[in-house]
């Protein structure tokens, strides 16, 4: 009879290593820790520079394991896109970067499963709110202004190009 144990950890994309907390957590499960670390690094390499949630499920009787990667936080995705290490301490006065509207839409698509938004337009507004709160401008403007322009229909054609991707699952 197989018994499965699940471990959840946060790792930097592509940079997991056998030191604590990972190694000591995996060792009692009698799996090859280096194999697990290699598998984690392989599936997280696209998130290099970001901390991502990882779930490792180990079958303790067969010592087989499965690695699932979660999605980084919205803030982490936004910071990576602008090349910043941390949010602005004063987002109203100190900006840390500027993104294109299309990048905001792509982040909304990445976060789709974790957002409560029912439409892509609503999801984009959520991401814009996050961008504003950490000091990121969009198209050189305050994200609140972009939200207003969205209400006026300015970005409808661009959003409609991605709606099929939003609606598919």
Topology:
Elements lengths: L3 E9 L9 H5 L6 H12 L6 E9 L4 E6 L4 H9 L14 E3 L1 H10 L9 H14 L2 E3 L4 H9 L4 H12 L2
Parallel strand pairs: 4-5
Antiparallel strand pairs: 1-2, 2-3
Helix pairs in contact: 4-5, 4-7, 5-6
Question: What does this entry look like structurally?
Answer:
With 169 residues, the chain is of the alpha+beta class. It folds into two domains: 4-69, Ribosomal protein L11, N-terminal domain; 74-167, Arc Repressor Mutant, subunit A (Orthogonal Bundle). 42% of the residues lie in helices and 18% in strands. The chain contains seven helices and five strands. The chain has helices at 22-26, 33-44, 74-82, 101-110, 120-133, 143-151, 156-167, and strands at 4-12, 51-59, 64-69, 97-99, 136-138. Strands 1-2-3 form a three-stranded antiparallel β-sheet. Strands 4-5 form a two-stranded parallel sheet. The mean pLDDT is 92.
């Amino acid at each position: 009879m197989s018994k499965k144990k699940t471990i959840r950890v946060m790792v930097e994309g592509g940079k997991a290593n056998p030191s604590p907390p990972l190694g000591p957590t995996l060792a009692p499960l009698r799996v090859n820790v280096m194999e697990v670390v290699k598998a984690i690094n392989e599936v997280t390499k696209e998130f290099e520079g970001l901390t991502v949630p990882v779930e490792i499920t180990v079958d303790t009787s067969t010592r087989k394991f499965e690695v699932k990667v979660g999605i980084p936080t919205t803030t982490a995705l936004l910071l990576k896109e602008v090349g910043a290490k941390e949010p602005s301490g004063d987002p109203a006065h100190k900006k840390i970067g500027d993104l294109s509207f299309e990048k905001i839409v792509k982040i909304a698509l990445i976060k789709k499963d974790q957002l409560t938004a029912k439409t892509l337009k609503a999801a984009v507004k959520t991401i814009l709110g996050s961008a504003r709160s950490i000091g990121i401008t969009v198209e050189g403007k305050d994200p609140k202004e972009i939200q207003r322009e969205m209400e006026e229909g300015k970005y409808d054609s661009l959003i409609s190009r991605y709606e099929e991707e939003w609606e598919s699952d």
